[in-house]
Every structure is written in C-alpha cells, then in structure tokens.
Amino acid sequence: MNDAAGTFPSTVARDSVDPVPLTTVGGFDYETDVIIVGFGCAGAAAALEAAAAGADVLVLERLSGPGGSSAQSGGEIYLGGGTQVQKACGFEDSADDMYAYLRAALGPHADEEKLRLYCDESIEHFEWLRRQGISFQETLYDAPGWMAPTTDGLMWLGENAWPYGTLARPAPRGHRPPAENYGGWLLMEKLAAAVDAGGARTHTDTRAAALIADESGQVAGVTARHFGQDLRYRARKGVILTTGGFVDNEEMLAAHAPVLLGHGKVSDGGDDGSGIRMACALGAATRRMGMVEAALIAPPSLAYHGILVNALGQRFINEDVYPGTYSHAALLHQPAPWWVIIDQEGFEAAAATEAPGLQPQHVAETAAELGSELGMPAGALETTIATYNQDAARAEDRYFHKNARWLRELNGPLAAVDPRVLGVAAGTKTGIAGFTLGGLHTTVDGAVIHVSGRPIPRLYAAGRAAAGIHGEGYVSGTSLGDGTFFGRRAGRAAAR
Amino acid sequence: MNDAAGTFPSTVARDSVDPVPLTTVGGFDYETDVIIVGFGCAGAAAALEAAAAGADVLVLERLSGPGGSSAQSGGEIYLGGGTQVQKACGFEDSADDMYAYLRAALGPHADEEKLRLYCDESIEHFEWLRRQGISFQETLYDAPGWMAPTTDGLMWLGENAWPYGTLARPAPRGHRPPAENYGGWLLMEKLAAAVDAGGARTHTDTRAAALIADESGQVAGVTARHFGQDLRYRARKGVILTTGGFVDNEEMLAAHAPVLLGHGKVSDGGDDGSGIRMACALGAATRRMGMVEAALIAPPSLAYHGILVNALGQRFINEDVYPGTYSHAALLHQPAPWWVIIDQEGFEAAAATEAPGLQPQHVAETAAELGSELGMPAGALETTIATYNQDAARAEDRYFHKNARWLRELNGPLAAVDPRVLGVAAGTKTGIAGFTLGGLHTTVDGAVIHVSGRPIPRLYAAGRAAAGIHGEGYVSGTSLGDGTFFGRRAGRAAAR
C-alpha cells in the first residue's frame, strides 16, 4: 500500500483511529520523551517549550515540511495588555481591557479561564515570540480589515467599533510580522527555524495514524505511516496533538459544523480532524464542535464605505466592525442574499485600492429601482437608505452606531455588490471560506479531558485540534494566538 | 453510599462512565437478551419491538416508574402521509409532502436518510401506535400553537405558514392523544401498559452507570446502581441507550449547547447525558451536539394577533409560524429584547382564551411613544407599524407573508408584551425553556457509530440520546416521533 503524502485525503474515511494496545506493540521504531503530532504554530510552540524544558522532542508532520494551516494564514497574532508595539504606536492597554474586548468579541460563552490567562500573560507571550525571531514594525494600519496590505506591525481588529469600544478602552491588538497581506508563512518560517535551533527533531512525510495506550488508558506513543511504511513511536512523557481542525473532513463537517459544507476551506488541506478522532477513540471529550470562523470574501473597505443589507433591504450591523464579525452576522443570522449598497464615490474608493477591475452586480438610478431589481419588499431599501442618509448628515447612526468617520450620505446612482465578490472571483465557489474552532476539551495546560471528567494520562492537545478561547465569535489572530500560547503550555506540561 | 433516586443529579459530575472490562466482571446479577436503559418513549418502543421479535427484554429506569421526559411533554407525535385521522379531517397528504416540509422546517442539514425513512413509513408507524392503545380523535384544532387546549386529535405545526406552505402541499400532521394541553402522560401511560403486556420486564430505581465491554470493544452489558447496591447486567444480544438528552447536565451544556445555560429545562430532571457519555467513553461518535429546541413561553395567539419585533423595532418573521420557529428566530438570531406589539383588540383576544389576568409590560398612546419607552431607534417602530398596517389593509404582508387570516391593522393605544411572559409567570426564570437535540451518531437501525466509522458491536441508541431527524430546526412531535420510530428499529435490530 503506497500511502504517500499526496494521497492522504482520500484515506481519511477508511482509516481506523482505534487506539493500539501497548501490549500488542512488539517494539518501537523510535523513542523520545515528547511526540508532537503536526507542525503548525501550536506544534512549533509546544516543541520549543518542551525542548527548552530539557525534553527530547520529536515532531511528526504529514506534509513534506513545517507550516501547516498556520503558514497559509494572515499571520496576525492577537496580543495586548501594553506591548512594546502598542506603546510605540501611542496606545495604552491593559490585560483587563483586552479580556473585556475578547470576552465580548469571542463570546458568548468563551472559556473564561483560558481567556483570562491568555490576556494576563499576553505581554510575556509577545516577548517570547520576539525571542523566536518574529519582528513587528512599530507602525499602525488604521482601517478595518482582515489583514493589512502593508508591513505595519499593528492593526485594529474590531476593538474601536461599536459596541466593543463602549465595553473596553479600545486599543489595536493585531500584531503582524512584516509582510503585505498574508504573513503566516513568515511567522512559520521564524518558528520552524527556532524549533530547529532549539534541538527538536522533525519527521516529515509522516502521518500519525492512532494513539498507543496501555491497559489503564495512559498514552504511550503513536503509530504512523511514512511512504507506506508503518512506524511505531514511543513517547516516554507524552503525546501532544496539534493536528488542526476538521474543515477538510466532510463527514465531520456534516456531523458537527454543516454551515461550512460546500464553502471554501482556510487550511493546508490536511485539517482532517485526525487528532480529534484519535483522542475521541480513547474517550476524550470535545467542546463546541459546531463553532466556526466563516468569512464573506470582499474588499474590507467595500462594506464600510457603503451599507450592508439583508435580502429584505434591512441593515443589520455597523459596517466598520472586523469583517469576520459582519460575515458571521450575515451568514449565521440574516436572510440571504446579502448586498453591499454603495454609491459611486464609495465604490471607487474601495475598488481603487483593494480590487481594481471590480464590477458591481447591479446598478440603478434610485434606491427604489435597485430594491425592485434585487427583489426586496417595496419601499424597504428606500427607507433604509433615507434613514442612513439622515443619520450620516447628523453624524450619528441611530441603529448600529457605525463610527462617524465612515458615515457618509449615499448619493446619485447606487450599486449593489455581492459581499462575497472577491471570493467568487478568486475561485472559492460560494465566496465564503472558513475553518473550525471546536475540538478536544483541554485544561489550560493542554491536558485532554476524558468524558468522565479526568485528564487522559500523557495526552495533550493545542491549536485547532482543541477548543480554545472562542465562544461563538472570532477575530483574526486569536487562532495563531491561542495555538502558540496554549501550545507552549502543553509543551511545558508534557516535558514535566 | 445511599444512591436513592432523589439524590442522582448531584452525583452526575463525579461518577465515572469508563467502560468496565468484561474480564473484570466476576459474575452477573441478571442476564437477558436486550437491555434498554431508560423508560421514555424510545425505550418503550424499543422494548415493545424487541419483545415482539422474541427477545428477553429488561428495561432499566432510574426513577420509580416509566415515563421519562416523554411523560412531561405535550404528547404530539409528528405523523403524516395520509393517516386515517388526516383523511377523516379532510386532508390529503403524501410522504413526499411530509418530507419536503420536515426537510425545510427541521433543516438545514437534517439527516436525509433518517428523515426519508421516517416519512415513508409514517402511516405504518401511526397504525402501530394505535395498536399500542393510543387513540387520536378525528378532529382538527385549527390555530398555530405549541399544544392544543382541546382533545382534538390533529393540529397544525407550521405546515400552512410561509414559506413552508409554498414548499409542500400543507397538511396538519400533529397527532395528539385526547388530552387538553399536555398529553405526554397519556401517551406514556398507554406505551408503558403495552410494554408490560408485551412481556418485557422493568427494573425501576435502577440507574445504569457504565457499559461492560469485552477486549474487542463489543458491548456485553451494563453496571447499575439500585439504592446503593451495585448490579451487573449481562445483555446477550445488545444494549439500547434511551437515556434522553443532556439539558440537565450543566457541564455538557457549557461544552456543547451553551445557549440553554440558565434557561428552563423541558425534562424530567434526569436528562443528564449519561448514555451519551457512556458510549463516548467507548469511542462513540456524536452529531450536532449544539442543536436545541428553545421556546419563548407566551400564549401562542399573542404573537399572531400582534407583531413580533426585535430590540430595534424590526419585524423578523411571520408571527403565524409554529411558535418554536419564532422562538428560535428570536433567541438564536435577533437582538434582544424582543417584544410583541399589539393593540387592545388583539391583546384581549389572546388573553381571554389563553392567559386570563395577563398584563402588558408597556402601554402607550402611539407607536412613537411606545418605541421611545422601549429604547428603540427614533422612528423605527412607527415605520414598522405603518408598513404592517398598510399590508394588513391590502391583506398582503410584503415582508414575511403572514397569512391574511391573521393580518389586521393595529389601532388605538398599543401595548408591548414580553414574548416570554407566561414562562416568567410560571417561574421559569428567563421565560425560556428547552432541551437538547444532539447526541450519539447512529445508523437508521440505531447502531451506535464509533469515531472510526464502524458500528460499535451490540450497542444501540434512540430518542434524544441519539441525533435523529433534526438539523437546526424543531417542531412539536418530531422528538416523540423519532424517539418511537427509531426506538422500534433499534429494538428490532438488537433482538436479531
């Protein structure tokens, strides 16, 4: 059986994740203290800290090199409480303000213990990341967005938008390595180099298949495949699953997060839930398996230069929030189709900088005509635009409190633009892409919890294989953020 | 340790659900072919069919008698395709129309294989229920509602409301035993008598603790407690978990369905997720653990005699849908607080028949005053009511297509009534109550699926311990319906 890297996805459904009894393992091909399954940001952080604690560490990666889905990401890391970058850009911040914002933006019902720790120790985590070679320019990108098109080291991620700005003192907390737009590759380049330098070994093209456990349920290692060869790895101190989420596993999506079925996947293609399934086969508990990040892919400035309406012509959110926030509001809660309604001035401002060549789907002389063309109830779009223009004229959005900076009357001919337009243009069938946030139930030290409530001995998880600091919300940087933060804690705990 | 029925809930978190190895079980206190854990509707249906197939059957029930949460329920069973009751009331129906309705109302992403079977065999299931002694009067209760205040045998459950009436030929499919309002007790009285007559034995005050499994993972029985005594039950052919959902387990709610935290529980107090946890300890897969039924508890006629608006004064649904549908729309998707806005004529019509003594929370002479008192954006409620009144005058709701039968201009002084008012009055702190819909991943024959994708040998589940025919929606009768329907199939499969 040739099980080379390129054929992995098709084997997902067939492969057993049944735990292998230690008594049936005749011998081991490799032995080490700590095995880490998956070389994304969480695996890298775990490897660095486990090695720093003196453990012999081996990282197994199914692909031919490190990076994982982290390397495909924007690269923002959500950090605050008063980092050097925040201070240099003129912002005061505190762990309490960071906590208050994240509790609202990632809520409701985020894990408060994890979130509190994440905020309280954020400055230390920032310094640790810098020690691994990751640099952040001390300049601010000052507009709402998914990512910055510049090399600025700091950006807003919804902190200054209503209602968040009223719940906590706003400070930008999106910390970015110096790359235009996508910067995950740079983050992972630095982390992988640090892992190498720190002494952890890596086996690439090696896909973990199942956990090895003794009769008491204690984890003793993993089985894996390397180009068709079956390998047995012994972990004297612990196994850390950093295998990512499950957006690439259609059966798991159907079972747990069907809202992402059919949409684009923000992943490296290997987020097949294998780590979650391996642990569940040992009785591991999960949390919030239905939670997702899902993005309507449009130029970010399109929404805040115009208004966002649902199929009935109603606005439903201040358009200057983090774009993921309006994406969730639309996809999860509003009747589709959704439209950006915008005038020529707004459209040109958005298209010129972010999407040259962009074309609106519909154009009309009046709101009534446009509403009719879009099949909205008679009068609906006129009322919405008249109200919005009144509010723009007096610089106060009575419904959703969009910042006055972005309030401007919509004049002249109007266009309707699909807020998924860039995604469709880029080949994402539905113009929507996302990934999963739910996963294994872990302690703050990454120990995987059994459905009985006790930790499973010597089994750890971090990154998107675990449920982290998210409730139902998401902002950029919180997945790389909690992946590296709790990955480090899992690495230290496993090395003890 | 005294583990009498009354003290069960406090022991939930402490108790281990770890599987007990068969090799460690010295001997058994009882042996039978099929063990059924839990005597609600699914357990009863499983017991009846397993016994009818010739198996020796034993039902374990933690409380002192049969009934479970099923006995606390409304008692509607969702049946159709052209039952005798539907025909006698003058309605034509088909399995395809039933399927089209349920696919929309219980969707998106309901289990289509289960749903198809449930609809195709619904007439047979209706006849089977009648053979167990359950009678249905051949009369229709003709208004939207959770339950009927009459003994009518048939009621609408949203089939004739927009958009459902446009997706399938509408026919009422809520079949009810002859009891005013709550009828679950009567349903369970008949089923329990039938179980007795069918020869299955029952051990009450007996709480299953863990599954017994052999080295290959095949289920061989259960351990249980009976007034502090530990008992071991051998099941030669299979164990069927019909233990209900997990609304009474706060930890599981926090992990999977936090939207119900703090709200009322529609249960007998014992829906602690124990069956789900016992199976997951053996590596069972789950589906849709976040799905819930959640009801805003108000007189059903209050909403359709008035309009329902969100915190911004916007309508968001046709108020003549099944009340669970507007409850979900509000609770899961609309900014709170929600209000019923109603005039004196409407209020009196609702209060007179369904809630004598009901008082509105706010009254005002005009929509502007009322909107201001409710803290809505200036002009919002006036616009909503003016639009609604225009539509009522021409008998066409341009936004949500509420049936013309319930469209009536709102005139004179207006009241705002909290759509949770009856729940609050009845002592449900938040005026919202619900239960969980997610559970074990099962085949159409009730076999519990392992995370590896294969069935766990000799383990079955049905009722709310399993994921059934629900996607994200719910209508009355579909839980008793799928509990009895798939309970029967599990009983037959286990007896084979």
TrEMBL record, chains A, B:
Cofactor(s) annotated in UniProt: FAD
Keywords, in A-Z order: FAD, Flavoprotein, Oxidoreductase
Annotated coiled-coil segments of the chain: none
Pfam families tied to this protein: FAD_binding_2
Span of domain FAD-dependent oxidoreductase 2 FAD-binding: 33-479
A biological process from GO: steroid metabolic process
SUPFAM superfamilies: FAD/NAD(P)-binding domain (SSF51905), Succinate dehydrogenase/fumarate reductase flavoprotein, catalytic domain (SSF56425)
Lineage top rank: taxon: Bacteria
GO molecular function: steroid dehydrogenase activity, acting on the CH-CH group of donors
Record-linked PANTHER family: 3-OXOSTEROID 1-DEHYDROGENASE, FUMARATE REDUCTASE
NCBIfam families for the chain: PRK07121.1-3
Name of the protein: FAD-dependent oxidoreductase
